[in-house]
Amino acid sequence: MSTPPVLPPDPSPPVAAWLTTQPVGARPELIAEAAREAVIVGLGVSTREAHEVFAFVTDTTWLLVERGFTTIAVLDNQRVADLYDRYVSGEDIDLDRALAQAWGPWQVVEMRDALVRLRELNRTRAGARVRIVGVASSRVLSSDYDRVVDLLAGIDAGTAVRVEALLDVIRVAHGSGEHVLRARGTHPGTPFVEMARTARAHTARLAPSGERDAALELLDAVVDFHANAIGVGHDMAREEHLAADRLLDHHRRTGERIVLWEGSAHIAAHPGPMLGSHLRTALDDRYLAVHITFGQGHITRATIPAPRADSIDARLAGAHGERTIDLRTPPPATVAGDLGRSWPTRLISGLYDPADDDEHYFDLPSLTGSFDALVYIPTITPIRPLADE
According to the lineage, what is the superkingdom (predicted)? Predict the structure, then answer.
């Protein structure tokens, strides 16, 4: 009797075959169903620059609102978020002016459309209105820079011109971040906090007056904003903890259930310094962490290639088609072990360079320890910047 040939081992991990057995489709209703007992749902995105990803976030949010969630939390300046909230509540707020002061990723048609839809929803809604809150710590707006110049113009025109020249350079950090400008080669060289301090020094030389003191108060906040920027004095762990505390305090005070729009690295629930970890510790399974990833496609400034071969994104791509997977549903034992191990997943930030795509991956210590649900979109197209209209 002949000896059977020895076959090489299957190079694909068990999860690869299991993914092909999962129902095809981007299904917001599955996330809404998984969130039955949750008080906070984190919708984590691998990129904020894709139309399809944004659409899944909003489609899921509308379903969650139908099922009792009444607060949407976004990473943005708290004063800007307050303008969003007043707008969706029906107040006479200039939405375009509010979005002009927003964090860069929110200055898009998709965000404006979402806010318009929420305003209409609140107008016709019989129950509690949907609110918007901001989780970023900053309370400095780009309009504060204009206010400083206006105050100084009434005191000393020359000082106003000098301060305005400095502020016009550094205010762009509210859109992209100083670290992003450095990476893209568009940073002027002088640290923005130094330019903010110079603007304050010019102002401090003026004779005391109510206008000067008001300008100095605003400039103190501007200096603090730039002194705590990423790559300067930013304390990520502290900011993440404070953001989690804001969300938890909002829930405890109001009883409202919250949908959080954030990046996947912040949403991930595995132990560590990030926002999602604090929420999991405080809420256990009442926090639902969702990872929305993709295969390839285009964003405004780059073409994104197929994902790295060892990533969970590549395994999803190999299953062909959209997927929405509740990771808490027990899979076969062999698959459970594979899902529980470390997996890389791609995250697209403002620093993304397609020439170095392999470097833009985040290692999850455990897929099922990090997320409760997984969403995969094969191909993305760019979001639509408001500036292009």
Answer: Bacteria
